[in-house]
Design goal:
Elements (H helix, E strand, L loop, with lengths): L2 H7 L15 E3 L4 E6 L5 E5 L5 E5 L12 E3 L6 E2 L4 E5 L1 H7 L1
Antiparallel strand pairs: 1-7, 2-3, 2-6, 3-4, 5-7
């Protein structure tokens, strides 16, 4: 088990929730500022106006995938609204590589 799998499963980063990907776009779960966008596109972080931080991590061990799986649609520092697209997925390639 890799470090991040342990970190999430042992709640070292706080409580989490998992969702099944149904479409090819990952959207912001809340209004806030994009405080982190990982260059690989596999994760991003948001900070809400009340200071709550949210990490959106796409898949397991996806940090090791080539960046052609993820297209980043927003940049770090952008203000985003709930439901705004942040990452576009190449689902066919993602399924082949995971």
């Amino acid at each position: 088990m890799r470090f991040w799998d342990q970190a999430f499963s042992q709640k070292l980063m706080g409580n989490g929730v998992a969702f099944k990907i149904l479409g090819d776009t990952i959207s912001s779960p809340c209004d806030g500022a994009l405080t982190a966008v990982f260059p690989t596109g596999h994760a991003f972080g948001l900070t809400r106006s009340d200071g709550v931080e949210v990490l959106v991590h796409i898949g397991i061990d996806t940090v090791y995938l080539n960046v052609e799986v993820f297209t980043i649609l927003s940049k770090q520092g952008d203000g985003v609204k709930c439901g705004e697209p942040i990452i576009k997925l190449n689902l066919d390639l993602l399924k082949k590589k995971t």
